[in-house]
Write a structure and sequence with these properties.
With 92 residues, the chain is α/β, with parallel strands linked by helices. The protein contains two helices and seven strands; from the N terminus they run E-H-E-E-E-E-H-E-E. It starts with a strand and ends with a strand.
């Protein structure tokens, strides 16, 4: 699992989400509905780690994944970006 956070995403976290430097940002598995893959990646900036599998400092924030959600990002390269519609993810 690896992370990349673009400068545009950092700007969105700071200016639109109002996050402070050093704040935690949780990446987690969320149920998105039916289909071939009913789960997707979610993000939450109001949580602090309880049992983290990984904490990655990027752009002034501390991104983390709990052990219970590690399966959703295991073996992924996760890019966190932003555009006019807000934060989005690209995965490989």
């Amino acid at each position: 699992m690896s992370f990349l956070v673009t400068g545009e995403a950092i700007r969105t976290f700071k200016e639109e989400w109002g996050l402070q430097n050093g704040q935690y940002v949780r990446i987690y598995a969320k149920y998105a509905g039916g289909g071939n893959n009913p789960f997707s990646v979610g993000i939450n900036a109001s949580a602090e780690p309880v049992d983290p599998a990984i904490i990655v400092p990027l752009g002034g924030y501390r991104f983390f994944v709990e052990k219970s959600d590690e399966w959703i990002v295991n073996d992924l390269k996760l890019d966190i970006d932003s555009d006019k519609d807000g934060i989005f993810f690209r995965t490989e």
